[in-house]
Amino acid sequence: MFVSLLMTKKEKAQIVIEELERLYPKVPIPLDHTDPYTLMIAVLLSAQCTDLRVNQITPILFKRANNPFDMVKLSIDEIKEIIRPCGLSPAKSKAIWNASNILIEKYDGEVPQTFEGLEELPGVGHKTASVVMSQAFGFPAFPVDTHIHRLMYRWGLTNGKSVEQTERDAKKLFPEELWNKLHLQIIFYGREYSPARGFKLEKSPIDQKIGVKSRLPK
Question: Which of 46, 98, 164, 212 has its CA 20 to 30 A from that of 92?
């Protein structure tokens, strides 16, 4: 089934908003955390790792170090051993230690509340910064993960060329006051109703209402 040519992107976006609010009036933050620092570390660990696995590992890590001052007391090898199940542990452990050290030296141990400050930290790219800014500080942001990139394309709301383009398109289509909640709603929807594999149109209410692309973004 192809996207209807008679429905505008704005009309499709409104259907997405209404359906997601019906299905997920309240959405929890998927990654367990207690403050901006532990959220930042959890998001960093989630790269190419499931939220479930991250939530199994972070209690072990945060029992040893839940702030940058304690984190730098651990060696990179110690951090690497703890986070090994999350994958990419050599790179992630270095990023965690170095980012923690910068927070101490430059920000008195506090997580900066700007995109510029966050994105200069090792291991913290734009997506991670967007998650921290939106979920920890309440700043309007629209982090785009693989679920959102895939669904925005499937719903005909972006061309699928890059996550950067998908983010720009999402911000144009959806009201700013909805961004922080909506990006989480789309993630939950993708996992429950519209997976990349085993997708079934009859089980996906949004896809039924607006039609879907027949292929996934590259």
Answer: 164
By the 8 A CB rule, do 42 and 31 touch?
yes
Tokens of 5: 């040519």
CB proximity list for 181: less than 8 A, separation 6 or greater: 27
**DSSP at 189:** H
Distant-in-sequence, close-in-space partners of 132: CB < 8 Å, separation ≥ 6: 36, 39, 40, 43, 111, 118, 124
Catalytic residues: 127, 145
Residue 2 in this model has a pLDDT that exceeds 50: no
| Domains along the chain with CATH numbers | 9-28+142-210 (1.10.1670.10), 36-136 (1.10.340.30)
Neighbouring C-alpha atoms within 13 Å toward the C-beta of 96: 37
Is 0.70 surpassed by the pTM of this model?
A: yes
Q: How far is CA 188 from the centre of its chain?
A: 11
